[in-house]
Amino acid sequence: MWKNETAKRLQVRYPIIQAPMAGGVTSTSLVSAVSNAGCLGMIGAGYMSAEQLQEQIREVKALTENPFGVNLFIPGRYMTTDEKVALSNRLLDPLKKELSVHEKTTNLPTAEKDYDNFANQLKVILDEGVPVCSFTFGIPSEEVIGQLKQANVTVVGTATTVKEAILNEKAGMNVVVVQGSEAGGHRGTFEESSEGSMIGLMSLVPQVVDQVNIPVIAAGGIMDGRGIKASFCLGAQGVQMGTAFLTCEESGANELHKKEILKATEDQTVITKAFSGKAARGIQNDFIETMKAYEDSLPAYPVQNTLTKGIRKAAATQGKPAYMSLWSGQSPRLSKNQSVDELITGIVAQAESI
Amino acid sequence: MWKNETAKRLQVRYPIIQAPMAGGVTSTSLVSAVSNAGCLGMIGAGYMSAEQLQEQIREVKALTENPFGVNLFIPGRYMTTDEKVALSNRLLDPLKKELSVHEKTTNLPTAEKDYDNFANQLKVILDEGVPVCSFTFGIPSEEVIGQLKQANVTVVGTATTVKEAILNEKAGMNVVVVQGSEAGGHRGTFEESSEGSMIGLMSLVPQVVDQVNIPVIAAGGIMDGRGIKASFCLGAQGVQMGTAFLTCEESGANELHKKEILKATEDQTVITKAFSGKAARGIQNDFIETMKAYEDSLPAYPVQNTLTKGIRKAAATQGKPAYMSLWSGQSPRLSKNQSVDELITGIVAQAESI
């Protein structure tokens, strides 16, 4: 069941992609373990500088000879106002006090800096000969896609609706990851009319497969061989799994984050914009609850993300999950704390047995 | 792939259930055609009087010797206030004027009348020897379940979370339908902590299957053999399909409703409480848009449902989909206008070929 166009293109034994979770989850040990196990490890580089990215790419290369990939966030224009920043700071101040976060957040991101960083990240990917590059929050320019493809980098887009999948195909993406409403972490939505559409994977995959000619990778809520086999039945050529890898021993996720997922139930995740200014799925907690009423008045991504950084970091250090961004998909009951090898061996055998 | 415990229990060739869509969609010709094709036709009796139900059961019996089922809504306590009713009427008045609906809505439902009707519906089911009875919006009393099971009626519950599935099993249900967030029409949610949880089917099915011992039927967004085979891979023993049957030639749905689904895309459905007071998925239109801001201030189901009845009926008669409840799941791109026989023959062959 594993040998298909996508496995061939990604040069992997199993067309199973470890989702490029940003923010330190995709440690070198996670990425290399996934690639060594015959799947595709991915560095979630969205928040990295070019230097950090280059360093991790070299670390990964030292630990695996198999292909791996890097995911980048497409920089975008974003609107924020001093009033929005002030409101956010006013809401965050009591939490900062509670967590003894004293630094003021200065140096807010700007679209200009984001574009510069993106250009530098791309240069690293080309310089280091990374075989796969995926994108979230948009589609890069024709020029960028052309450059990458000319350097034999496989380019992978992200879509949350049929329209977004078609846009990815038209832009020249080799493969498209379709993200169902079940998925944990940030929604990859980038096209205005797709906002809030929240299509479940069971609906999304066949409708996309019927409308595009490039291979489709299913993402969202897939945790084991059952989800993999089901995705193939729907017409996908591979899967991308986040939460299943997040709780693995090798993952760089905070141990508290892992624990919260391991004990969560399927009805405990919610969509929130409170942490970053962009919609994302995580386990309901006090932070989300407190900010809920103001969600639509907060600064846009990535400004809000920067404003909440100190709180998230301090909460993690101090062991307070109530203020951490506990990203998780809708299948936490299927999560396990095990090695990447155990996970992959288990799900491959399970998928083959169905 | 079709011979399993569920097919045996439901006495059908294919464990494919036609969802019991209420409000006239499940015409006698639809129900009997589904049962004649080896699947389970269901009468959506939620809004019917005992007399109407008895009449349709007899009509169906005259057209098929195969088993069929009836779905009932569990009556519940509901809170409404004169203020809420007044607000709703104030919002609906301009629409009534536009549609020339002159009758005042009197005779609002009461919990007492609902309970009486439910008792009378149950009596008909027992008197007529209906082989399968499913329930939405809750779980009937131990006494009712005992009575039905003693009369050899297969009882089928509805769940939207693992917790609700476990409650159904504990109550003695023979089978449980799990409804993913993709599903069209009313959410079957009945347990308070499950409200708003909106679990996608890819996440819901395996997590339920791991926690209950009764057979699980997958519902939500399934339209063809791909969805059926995928559901089986996830651990379901059967599927329930609504939208796929709604657009069939034999369905009693308004022709405009069928047309709107046939031309809709996956991103056009939304969850709204505006039509009935209970969350349901349908194609976005002016009515939903107009009522959106007031959704949480409207009377509860079934009061709001009664208040909007005149408008929905007039809109359908006058060909104005902008004010109709255009229930649809998230896979309208997969809908076809064909006969029930063509639908079932096609999806069975497709599922077998995967």
Automatic annotation (TrEMBL), chains A, B:
Function noted in UniProt: Nitronate monooxygenase that uses molecular oxygen to catalyze the oxidative denitrification of alkyl nitronates. Acts on propionate 3-nitronate (P3N), the presumed physiological substrate. Probably functions in the detoxification of P3N, a metabolic poison produced by plants and fungi as a defense mechanism.
Presence of the UniProt keyword Transport in the record: no
Catalytic activity: 3 propionate 3-nitronate + 3 O2 + H2O = 3 3-oxopropanoate + 2 nitrate + nitrite + H2O2 + 3 H(+)
InterPro entries, per the entry: Aldolase_TIM, NMO
Keyword field contains Oxidoreductase: yes
The protein, known as: Probable nitronate monooxygenase
Any one GO MF annotation of this record: nucleotide binding
Homology family: Belongs to the nitronate monooxygenase family. NMO class I subfamily.
